[in-house]
Amino acid sequence: MRGVSFEKEKGPSDLLAHYVHRPIENMIVLRLMNTRVTPNQVTVMTNLLAYVVAALYFFGHLLPGSLLSFVVGVMDGVDGKLARAKNQTSKLGKMEHAFDLLFEFTWLISLALFLHMSTGSSLPLILSMFSILFISFYRYCYDTFSRTMGMSLDIYGGFERAFRRIAGRRNLYNIHILIGVLLGVPLYSLMSITVHAGLTAIIYAWRTAKHLHSSDREAERRGTPK
Question: Has residue 5 been placed in a domain?
Answer without folding.
Answer: no
